[in-house]
Amino acid sequence: MTPGERVIPRVLEIIKAHDFTRIVEFGAGANPTLSADFVASLGIEYTLLDISQIELDKAPAGYLKVCADICGDEHLPLAQYDFAFSRMLAEHVPSGAKFHQNVRLLLRDGGYALHFFPTFFALPFLVNAALPEALTEKLLHLLQPGRERSGNLGKFPARYSWCRGPLRSQIRRFERFGYEVELNIRLYGHGAYYQRYRFGETFMRGYQECSADIRCRP
Ligand SMILES: C[S@@+](CC[C@H](N)C(=O)[O-])C[C@H]1O[C@@H](n2cnc3c(N)ncnc32)[C@H](O)[C@@H]1O
Fold first, then answer.
1. How far is the CA of 213 from the centre of ligand 1 (A)?
2. Mutate to test the pocket of ligand 1, among 92, 114, 147 (most ligand atoms within 8 A of CB)
3. How far apart are the CA of 196 and the centre of ligand 1, in A?
4. pLDDT at residue number 209
5. Ligand 1 centroid vs 181 CA: distance in angstroms?
6. What's the CA gap between 117 and 104, in Å, rounded?
7. 115 in ligand 1 pocket by Cβ < 6 Å?
8. What are 147-153's contacts with CB under 8 Å, separation 24+?
9. Residue pair 24/45 in contact by the 8 Å Cβ criterion
10. Which domains does the chain have, with CATH numbers?
């Protein structure tokens, strides 16, 4: 099991519990979290957003796919989604601030976001952050054969922006963008390689009232 797979049951549970129907997954790449059967059985509109068309093309046909940078200033559909989530994306984006700000813009008021990502401080992540990408890619291929770019579990440059916590300071950052954090927890990975390393899960709600307060201030 890859670390990101452990959060799948929780994503499904959240969707069912809240009756979410407009859902977007960021950095879904080659591995959409929701199966086509699950999407069809609940009548969900499910969008995969990824910066790489090559990765999106690896995902099965039949999904709604959008090639875009979640940290960019591209014109993405605003206030559209009930639920926005990501698995193993947050560590790759160049700016945690821009990422969470853009996600908030795409959510409808009161919509939810969930992000699952590795957190500092564990040695492999520190090594990955400190060494040049070309070297860490070679090391990974030695340690974990099967992680080639051409496959479905390729390695992507990691930056770990805002990949900390659970920390009060990180929660305050989310609140500044109009989120209310419901859950910010640390999980430990499954599987031999990941067993001891830290992963964070953040589940939060975007409130219109917060952004309205900010806009209305004299
Ligand atoms: C490690 S893979 C994770 C793929 C999938 N979520 C999983 O768990 O197997 C990271 C994915 O994020 C995408 N990605 C990286 N930076 C991105 C960005 N700024 N905007 C959107 N997608 C991005 C990559 O193209 C890649 O598909």
1. 33
2. 92
3. 23
4. 38
5. 23
6. 18
7. no
8. 152/30, 152/31, 152/58, 153/2, 153/30, 153/31
9. no
10. 3-119+160-216 (3.40.50.150)
Per-residue pLDDT tens, the chain, 218 aa: give them. Answer: 677 787 899 899 999 999 999 999 999 999 999 999 999 999 999 999 999 999 999 999 999 999 999 999 987 888 789 999 999 999 999 999 999 999 999 999 989 999 988 887 667 777 777 778 788 777 777 777 777 777 777 778 888 898 887 788 888 999 888 898 888 877 765 554 555 566 677 777 765 433 333 333 22
Give which of 203, 155, 162 is closest to 30, Cα–Cα.
155
- The rounded Å distance from CA 193 to ligand 1 centre is 21
d(CA 71, CA 101): 9
**Residue nearest ligand 1's atom 17 by CA:** 51
* Residue 160, Ramachandran bin (φ over 0: left; ψ between -120 and 50: alpha; else beta): left
CA distances to 172, 206, 207, 208 from 217, in Å: 19, 19, 16, 14
